[in-house]
Amino acid sequence: MRLSAASRREESERSIATVGEEDGLDDVFAALSDPIRRWIIGQLQHGPCSVTQLGAPFAVSAPAISKHLAVLERCGLIVRWKAGRVHYCRLVADPLAEAAAWIEQHRAFWERQLEALSDYLDKEEDPCRPSGEPTRQP
Amino acid sequence: MPAVRRADPATIEIELQRRFRASPERVFRAWTQPSALREWWCPPGWIADEVELDVRVGGSYRIRMSRVGDRRLVAVCGQFLDVRPPERLVYTWRWEGAFTHLPETLVTLELRGAETDTLLTLRHQKFADAAILQQHRTGWIAACNRLDRLVTEPGLGYDRAAAY
């Protein structure tokens, strides 16, 4: 009997955990909808970084960068810590970060595909036109 | 011609638009004929060595790409869900040899235009489902680990040896 009670407890713990994770998903993708936050995530994929370094390429104030980092931290995408007077942050390894990477890679893939299709159509002889006629107006 | 594009992670889908100096019929053909796909589909250094397309509702497709040099193989495959030449094509999308954790997603192609000007809208969707599925998988592994710890922990009134 104790086992079945324990199993039920496991089951309810698991359900709660799953629901929580799905709610978190919305937050994470909202967090990633901002280009600065996306850039920060991209930089942190190379390893931990100081907050000063992260903010350097942007014409935004340090408090603004800090706000972006707070959003990312709330979603569990990054953690922040302090060593001496320097603030650092790093990416939290998470399947959601993997999901964001899928999307980014697919976007790049399709952009390349459409470029290649455009080149192909420009070079292709239009099969509807009689041969010998130019395929495009000069 | 610049591509007007929108990639919005908040909705977890990709949407791209592009104009082509060709009729919708030609763009549709380039997208659905194996001989045309072989010409443009692969990035430099790759060749489409097997292209099979059964372009009708319920028909399946598979485009296999092979990398020149090391012969690495990657394929995309799936099934056509809506086929309306030359204006609409909907198909499922699954990778083989890459993105193996990514379950089936959905590609929708819409073509609007005339003789020499076609606006193509491409949507790649269901990444949300994929991410949630990944979460569920992780959730299940964690639950199994917890259960395993629980049943092997002494003093819980459950003797693991009895199960064998």
Q: How does the helix and strand content of chain A classify structurally?
A: mainly alpha
| Main CATH class of the largest domain in chain B | Alpha Beta
Count every helix of chain B, treating DSSP H or I runs of 4 or more residues as helices: 3
Most extensive chain interface and residues per partner: A-B, 46 and 54 residues
Strand share of the residues of chain B?
35-45%
Based on secondary structure, the structural category of chain B is: alpha+beta
Report the biggest beta sheet of chain A as strand number plus sense, adding barrel if it closes: 3 strands, antiparallel
Summarize the structure.
Chain A is mainly alpha-helical and 138 residues long. Helices cover 63% and strands 10% of the residues of chain A. Chain A is elongated.
Characterization of this structure:
The complex is a heterodimer of chains A (138) and B (164). Chain A has 138 residues and is mainly alpha-helical. Chain A has 5 helices and 3 strands; from the N terminus they run ααβααββα. Chain A has a domain at 2-92: Arc Repressor Mutant, subunit A, CATH 1.10.10. Chain A has helices spanning 2-31, 35-44, 51-55, 62-74, 95-123; strands spanning 49-50, 78-83, 86-91. A 3-stranded antiparallel sheet of chain A has the order 1-3-2. At the A-B interface, helix 1 and helix 5 of A face strand 1, strand 2, helix 1, helix 2 and strand 8 of B.
Topology:
The complex is a heterodimer of chains A (138) and B (164).
Chain A: H1 2-31, H2 35-44, E1 49-50, H3 51-55, H4 62-74, E2 78-83, E3 86-91, H5 95-123
Antiparallel strand pairs in A: 1-3, 2-3
Chain B: E1 4-8, E2 13-20, H1 24-32, H2 34-40, E3 46-53, E4 60-67, E5 73-84, E6 88-96, E7 105-114, E8 117-125, H3 127-152
Antiparallel strand pairs in B: 1-2, 2-8, 3-4, 4-5, 5-6, 6-7, 7-8
Notable traits:
heterodimer, A: 138 residues, mainly alpha, Arc Repressor Mutant, subunit A, 5 helices, elongated, disordered C terminus, B: 164 residues, alpha+beta, Alpha-D-Glucose-1,6-Bisphosphate, Chain A, domain 4, 2 domains, 8 strands
